[in-house]
Amino acid sequence: MSALGRQTVELLQQLIRGAAVNDGTPDGGGEHRQVATLLRFFEGSGLDGITVEPHPGRTSLIIRVEGSDASAPSLALVGHTDVVPVEASGWSRDPFAGEIVDGVLWGRGAIDMLNLTAAYAVVTRSLAVEGFRPRGDLIFAAVADEENGSRFGVDWLTENRLDLIDADYVLTESGGAHAGRSPGITVMVGEKGGAGRRLRVTGTPGHGSAPWGVRNAAVIAAEAVTRLARHRAAAVITTQWQDYVRALDLDELSAAALLDPDRIDDALPRLGTLAGFAHASTHTTVSPNIVRAGEKGNVIPGEATVQLDIRILPGVTREDVEGLLRDALGDLIEHIEIEGDWFGEATLSPTDTPLFEALGSAVRRVHPGSALVPMLGVGGTDGRFYRRRGVPAYGFGVLSDRWDYGTFRRLFHGNDERIDLASVELTVTALDHVVRTFHDPHGGAHAHRSPHRKQATA
Ligand SMILES: [Zn+2]
Prior knowledge:
- This protein is an alpha+beta fold.
- The chain has 15 helices and 20 strands.
- The chain has helices at 3-18, 31-42, 114-130, 154-160, 162-165, 217-230, 239-248, 252-258, 264-267, 275-282, 318-329, 354-366, 383-387, 405-411, 421-438, and strands spanning 49-52, 60-65, 75-80, 100-101, 104-106, 138-143, 169-172, 178-179, 184-191, 193-194, 197-202, 206-207, 285-293, 299-300, 303-312, 336-339, 347-348, 371-377, 393-395, 418-420.
- The strands form five sheets. It has a six-stranded mixed β-sheet with strand order 1-2-6-3-7-19. Strands 10, 11, 13, 15 and 16 form a five-stranded antiparallel β-sheet that branches. Strands 8, 9, 17 and 18 form a four-stranded mixed β-sheet that branches.
- The radius of gyration is 23 Å and the shape is globular.
- It starts with a helix and ends in a 20-residue tail after the last helix.
- The mean pLDDT is 93.
- The structure holds zinc ion.
- Zinc ion (ZN) binds at residues 80, 112-113, 146, 173.
C-alpha cells in the first residue's frame, strides 16, 4: 500500500472512532470532534483552516489552497464528517472501533463517506507538503450535518459563507462501484429531488368499546398507507438509466425490459440487490415513513398523520406530486389533507467538462479499458447545493472489483458497513491524480472556468 493509502486508512479509522452520529436533533452530530482530528492531521502542513459552527458542536472545517492563476477554475473536495445512527444488535463488529480484519476496515461511515473525506484530506495535505501549487484554488471542506439535510453544513454555508465553499467544480460522494461485467465505473452526475408531504387524516373520535361504524383515523391512515404502497406510478426512462442499463451488459431481452416503461416493473424482481435502485431510478417514489395516531388505549383516534418521503425524477413538478397522491389515495382523499409544499427539484451536472475528463483519465489508469458510467443518484448529497447554482458536482471514487453497485448501496446506512483497503488505496490514488491533472500548474488546455455556471445572485 502506498503512503497515501496508509495515511487514508489511519485517518479513516480515527474518523470512524470520532462517531459523529447525526440523529437529526440539533445537538446530535458532534462534528467538532472530527474537525479536531482533521486539524491535528493538518498540523505542520503549512495549511490554515477556517472553522464555522452554526450551532454548538456542529463544526465544519474549510481549507483553501490558493492557486497560482486567479483565472483558472477552482475545485472543491466536499466531504461530510457525520454518520447515520446504527442498530448495534445488527452488527457483527463494533461499528465505532474502526477495526481492520482480513484487509477490510469496518465501521459506520466506512463508505458513507468518511473514506472519501479522509482521502480528500490526505491528498490536500500531501500536495501542500510536496510544494505543489495548484493552478486554480483547491478547497478542502469537511462539513457537518449532511445526513440530516445539511442545515448546519453546506446549506448553511451556501446561505451564510458562500465565500468559503464556493468553487467552479466539486467532487463529493458517491461513486466508484462497478456496473456490470464490463469495466464501467459509476460516477454520480446528479440526484433526484425531494417533495416530502404529510397526510393529515381526520376521523371521528369515540369510545374504543364500541368501534362499529366509527370513522377511526388510524384505520383510514392504514388504508392510505396501503394504497400508497400498492400504487404503481408510471415509469420514466431517463438517459442516465439508459446508460446504466447498457453498462450492465445484460442479455438483450433483459435489457429491453428494463428500458421499457411498461415492462420494467415486472422485470424488477429478477434484479436482485439492484431492484430497489432500479425502481427508484425510474419512478417518483413515495415512502410512508412516520405514521402516528391515537393517544389513549380506549379512545378511537379522531386524527392521524402520515409523513411521506417523496423523491422526484428530473422534470417532475409540484402538481405532478399532488396528482400522484390523489391518484393513489382515490376516494380516501375526502378524509385527508395534504400538508407541506417544500419542493427541491432534481439536479444534474453536464459531463462535457474538464473535471469529468480528469475523472475518466484517473479511472483508466487503475482499471485500464474502463469507462465512466454517469448515474443519477436516488438519495441526496451535498452536491445538490452546488448543482442548483450551476456548479458541476460529481460523486466520485474508485472501488475494487468486488463492489457491484447493489452491494455498495446495501451497506449505505446498513449494518456491517465496511470497505476493503484496496478500495481505499484505489480511491486516494485516483483523487491525487485527478487534482494533479485538473490543477496541472503547467497545463493550459483546461484553463477555462465552467461555462455552465449561473450568474451569482445577490
Ligand atoms: Zn453520505
